[in-house]
Amino acid sequence: MEAAAAAAGTGPYAAGTLDARCARLPFALGRQPGRRSRALAHGNDAARRPARARPRAASRWRAACRLRTARHMRALAATAAPRDGAERRAREAYAFTTVGEWVAADRTRRRSAAEERERMRAEREWVLARGDRPQIRGYRDDAVGIAGRDARRDDANALPFGGPATAAAAVLTAPQEIACWTHEATRGASDDAVREVLRFGDRSGLRELRSPRTPLALCEEFPVGLVAGQRFERERAPDEVLRALAWARVPLSDVRVASHRRPLAQLLETAALPARAWTFDACLIDGTLFLNEAPAPQLPAVAGASARELRYLRAVYASQRFEAACTTPSGDVAEAASTEFFSLVGFHLGPFAIACASEVDAVDPRTGEYVELKLFASAHADAAGLDDRDEGTRAGLGRQGKCDAQRRAAAATRKLLLYRHPRWWAQCVLSGVSEVRAGAIDEHDVLRAVRHVRVGDLAAMSTRGLRKLRWHESRGAQGDSGASNDAPFDPGAATRFAAEALGFIDGVCAAHPGESVRVRYAPRAGDRASQMVTCTVGEGSPLLPKMIRATLDDM
Q1: β-strands 517-521, 278-285: how paired?
Q2: Tell me: the pLDDT tens digits for 319-360?
Q3: How far apart are CA 415 and CA 434, in angstroms?
Q4: 260, 520 contact by CB (below 8 A)
Q5: What spans are recorded as compositionally biased (Basic residues) (predicted)?
Q6: Which end of the chain has the smaller Cβ count within 10 Å, N or C?
Q7: What pTM, to 2 d.p., does this model score?
Q8: What is the DSSP string of 131-152?
Q9: What is the largest CA-CA distance in the chain?
Q10: Distance between CA atoms of residues 138 and 144, nearest Å
């Protein structure tokens, strides 16, 4: 049916949407062309008989394994007809399954797996009540693998369906630090001359955490402070990761994926934030997949900026002021922005051994653990800001003003639980950070309090917070914030999607080694084709493979 749609030029597999070969890939169709489909293609009537029913667990296990492997992509590339140079440089598009359909299917699989575990637990308790030795097939007292552990507790990074082999293939292991370095950027006599220095093994750029005073007006000097303390923007390329691996004497053959944190964090956030677009480049060289983040957009000028751009500039400056207040004695933005500390960690995401570099904001001097600094709009901070107003202003708010404040508070809480928490979790687990210092600001960008949040508690906090919002909405206390239709983010689903999407990207790059591939996710409402993670060969930056090979030659 898909091939007919592609031939007719209609549907999601039209020639203008996907490549002709993409319609035959299991990554796009979500299935594997096995012996039955091949027999049907050759006109074997015997294959048209109904297929034998298979156990659901086995089918799920096979489907998960097929999505994670790149063997089908390599076999297809090996059997393809040779192409000349001009045709090889032509852009070829590949598409992963839509994010919404993947999340719905993943929830169905988790629900079915939970029901199966509950049935097995009830059957085991019934056998134990009889006093007999449990003899349930496929179950052992030691609870093999992550699937057994998940029956007793909620493991955030587990894959609780399909058996231990499938579960172990989608686990995000704890990051271990491999190397570190300090990056310094100083300007010379001319504003355009920027001198950058990388000192590997140097921890002088790691600042100790301080407690800022509250309340603190973060945008008091805006916009003058933004111009004076604007961060030196630069593109963080994977050549820094290569040099750090060489400094730590880690062979490149032991690393399957090398990248900075942003591309991997975007993959982890997609399952929880399906409406957020992102773009990065990928390239496979010498068996290692390199991910290169897209260049950060330049900050717009304050003069002539629109109201939306001014709000963005205020948010950027408030974040810089908060980081400076928490890490420097003087709270100077320029001092905090001139030096950056990076940590290179190694971990496994499914079958991939990953080396990920990330910037570290501060270190807690009491525990020695890295800390991430974040800002968020808090309803309690707005309530604290009312105490600073005079009595006449508070009395003039009236009942309508109180209801509006409650609705704004519910919307701010919903944004924190559904959008901030998934991003904080993804960024922290990729850099080995276990604690977030979250600054609560009011509507006037005044810092009211600093909260200590453990990264492992973010998912549970989102679940409890959404449950509380639904309870308030049912009583009509805070209006309709939309929380009744929202589900808390699932770290396990985010990990599984990132592992499968990374396997898809690796398969496309393996079919085109040494070429830059543009990985894009730009969802639009009502457009199914735009809701797929697409890989386009020949559209990425041509400088990426040249830069990697030049770095490898210098090492």
Answers
A1: antiparallel
A2: 888 988 898 877 677 666 778 899 999 999 988 999 999 999
A3: 22
A4: no
A5: 49-59
A6: N
A7: 0.70
A8: TPPP--TT--TT--HHHHHHTT
A9: 86
A10: 9
